[in-house]
Write a structure and sequence with these properties.
It holds the Pfam family DUF3967. This protein has helices at 3-8, 23-30, 34-43, 62-77, 82-90, 104-178, and strands at residues 51-52, 58-59. It is mainly alpha-helical and 186 residues long. Strands 1-2 form a two-stranded antiparallel sheet.
Length: 186
């Protein structure tokens, strides 16, 4: 009978306290893959009392094997995550107590409150935007009136200047006809 078969039975004898099992042997005993065992060893290292053999490999004694079995039970049977298992060991076996989840009614009520709050904010923003737009339209109307008034004043001044300029040119032309240089001697 092999070492693994001995450990799988309830009556294993006196040699159970002196065992040194490799990762592969432990994986066969608890029916998990070696990669899963190595992952647990990596993630939960402070809580698994591993030893090194003469070759430098990690080996499991009885206490480490019991911890691995407990990890499997918590992880596979009770659906604990690695973090929950870590909490379990860190608190000396206190079960992880997840925060209670909200019921559908509570979730919908919270969502409805959020939607109402957001709708109220949007209405207020819309009202503020409407007031701003009205004020902006008033200012644009005043500005357009100012521009129209200034353009009209400019056109009037320009028409007046053109009229005065024509009058000056007409007077100059009349004066120059009266005093032609050849008529100067007459």
């Amino acid at each position: 009978m092999s070492k693994n078969e001995n450990l799988g039975e309830d009556n294993v004898g006196e040699n159970i306290n002196n065992i040194e099992l490799t990762v592969k042997e432990v994986s066969n005993i608890i029916e998990e893959t070696p990669n899963v065992i190595r992952n647990w060893m990596k993630e939960l290292k402070p809580y698994i009392p591993l030893k090194k053999n003469a070759s430098g490999y990690n080996v499991f004694d009885r206490e480490a094997l019991e911890k691995i079995k407990l990890i499997k039970q918590l992880h596979r049977e009770q659906n604990y995550s690695i973090r929950q298992i870590e909490h379990y060991f860190a608190t000396g076996g206190e079960a992880y107590k997840p925060t209670p989840e909200k019921g559908t009614d509570e979730i919908l009520a919270d969502d409805l409150k959020d939607i109402k709050k957001e709708l109220s904010m949007l209405r207020e923003e819309q009202h503020n935007q409407k007031d701003f737009n009205q004020e902006l339209l008033k200012r644009l109307d005043h500005q357009q009136e100012y521009i129209d008034r200034r353009l009209e004043e400019r056109h009037q001044k320009l028409d007046q200047f053109i009229t005065e300029f024509r009058e000056v040119k007409r007077l100059e032309a009349a004066a120059s006809e009266e005093k032609k240089w050849w008529k100067f001697w007459k």
